[in-house]
Each structure stands twice: as structure tokens, then as C-alpha cells.
UniProtKB/TrEMBL annotation:
InterPro entries: CheY-like_superfamily, OmpR/PhoB-type_DNA-bd, Sig_transdc_resp-reg_C-effctor, Sig_transdc_resp-reg_receiver, WalR-like, WH-like_DNA-bd_sf. PANTHER family: DNA-BINDING DUAL TRANSCRIPTIONAL REGULATOR OMPR (PTHR48111:SF4), REGULATOR OF RPOS (PTHR48111). Pfam families: Response_reg, Trans_reg_C. Residues 132-230 bind DNA. This is Response regulator transcription factor. The modification 4-aspartylphosphate is found at residue 56. Residues 7-120 form the Response regulatory domain. Keywords: DNA-binding, Phosphoprotein, Transcription, Transcription regulation. The keyword Ubl conjugation does not apply. Residues 132-230 form the OmpR/PhoB-type domain. CDD domains: REC_OmpR, trans_reg_C. It comes from Actinomadura rugatobispora. Gene3D superfamilies: 3.40.50.2300, 6.10.250.690, Winged helix-like DNA-binding domain superfamily/Winged helix DNA-binding domain.
């Protein structure tokens, strides 16, 4: 398998949707397993971790949000959520829970397949942020090539999007970016819900800030966006 394909667990209780999604993903080179129940999905994902989970929100047994929340307690497996059109609250809660991306129903199966490839590439470190060095800011260390980050010597459990956002901001210290700019330059989306940026920023702060309610590193510039305020920025050789 190439770096953009892998084993995908599709979780949807609508057999028609699951069949269509599976067919497109198999055509794209993935191996696919389908389950229709939230509890079964969680058990399978923990027993034999897939490379990525496509997860519907509305499921019997456990809903998609709870499945994602429990997965995130022990796993950083990428998750692409399927949400109903117009259910903005569900999308935001899904991102807060730890989803890497979402696609709204009704969706284009081809769009979903492209999103799956994109998330897999980022999760495997195949999309390397500009530059190849190791970024340091005090006790925070980010290695773009190894696709890893450490705080006070301890590994940080970051999703692919969280890692990309942190690396991008650290490479542009003290520069303010609007949410639209971050959506385009980190997510690669020319349009979309900027609340995605807000949620990922909040989750990232919870992992790297001593006090996420009074962040020192990722600072909000009210009415504009965010900037990275380093204690001492620099780039060291790998």
C-alpha cells in the first residue's frame, strides 16, 4: 500500500451509504471493513486499530461522538466524521471530541475518498510543513520530518491537523493569521467553516499551554485571528 492508502474502518448503520463509501474507498486502493454499531466499531478499532475511521454520528449502541471520545482516550487514529447537512453543532462537537475532518451528508463519495487520502497523508507525515528542521520554543520541540512533538521531553499526542497547525504557527512567529488564512494554508481549503480553526486551536492549547484559559504561546488577536508568541524561537538542525 502507498502512503495515501491503508485499512479503513467504515462505521455507518445505513447499509446503502456504507456500501457506496466502501466501494469508492476500495476503488481508491484501501482495504475496508464496515460495521453498523457504535459498540462494535469501538471494539474493532481498539482490538485491531485501522489506519483511519470513517465515522457516522448517528449510530445504534454508541453514537459517533461517544465512539470518537473513547477512541481519543487511548488512540490518535485519524477520524473523518459524517454529519448531517446543517447540523453545525454536531460538527463542532465532533471536532472538539477529536475528529480530524468531517464531510456533510449528502456528500460526494469522491470528495470523501479525497478527504480520506488527505488525512492519511498528514497523519503519516507525508505532508511535511515548509522547512525540514526541528523547531524549538523553550520546552516545546517539533520535528517536521519525524512528524513528532514533545513538551518537557514527553511526547505530545497530536492529531494530524493539530500537528500541522502547531508547526505552521511556529514557523511564522509573531505573525497574525486570520481564521480564513489558516483554513487555506493549513487545511488547504479555499472555503469552509472557520469554526474548524477555532476548535483545533482550542484543543491544541489544551495540550501545549500551562493554562489554556490564559495562553502564552498561541495568542488570540481579537477581531483578527491568532499568532504564535515564542519564548525563544529558533530552528535547529534535525
Amino acid at each position: 500500500m502507498s502512503g495515501e492508502t491503508g485499512r479503513v474502518l467504515v462505521v455507518d448503520d445505513d447499509p446503502t451509504v456504507a456500501e457506496v463509501v466502501a466501494r469508492y474507498l476500495v476503488r481508491d486502493g484501501h482495504r475496508v471493513e464496515c460495521v453498523a454499531d457504535g459498540r462494535d466499531a469501538l471494539r474493532r478499532a481498539l482490538e485491531d486499530p485501522p489506519d483511519l475511521v470513517v465515522l457516522d454520528l448517528m449510530l445504534p449502541g454508541l453514537n459517533g461522538l461517544e465512539v470518537c471520545r473513547r477512541l481519543r482516550e487511548t488512540s490518535s487514529v485519524p477520524v473523518v466524521m459524517l454529519t448531517a447537512l446543517g447540523e453545525e453543532t454536531d460538527r463542532l462537537v465532533g471536532l472538539e471530541t477529536g475528529a480530524d475532518d468531517y464531510v456533510t451528508k449528502p456528500f460526494s463519495p469522491r470528495e470523501l475518498a479525497l478527504r480520506v487520502r488527505s488525512v492519511l497523508r498528514r497523519a503519516r507525515g507525508l505532508v511535511v510543513p515548509a522547512g525540514t528542521g526541528v523547531l524549538r520554543d523553550g520546552d516545546l520541540r517539533v520535528d517536521a520530518l519525524a512528524h513528532g512533538a514533545e513538551l518537557r521531553g514527553a511526547p505530545l499526542s497530536l492529531t494530524a491537523r493539530e500537528f500541522d497547525l502547531l508547526a505552521f504557527l511556529m514557523r511564522h512567529p509573531r505573525r497574525v493569521f486570520t481564521r480564513d488564512e489558516l483554513l487555506e494554508r493549513v487545511w488547504g481549503w479555499s472555503f469552509g467553516d472557520t469554526a474548524t480553526v477555532t476548535v483545533h486551536t482550542r484543543r491544541l492549547r489544551e495540550k501545549i499551554e500551562d493554562d489554556p484559559t490564559a495562553p502564552r504561546r498561541i495568542v488570540t488577536v481579537w477581531g483578527v485571528g491568532y499568532r504564535y508568541e515564542p519564548a525563544g524561537a529558533g530552528e535547529a538542525p534535525p
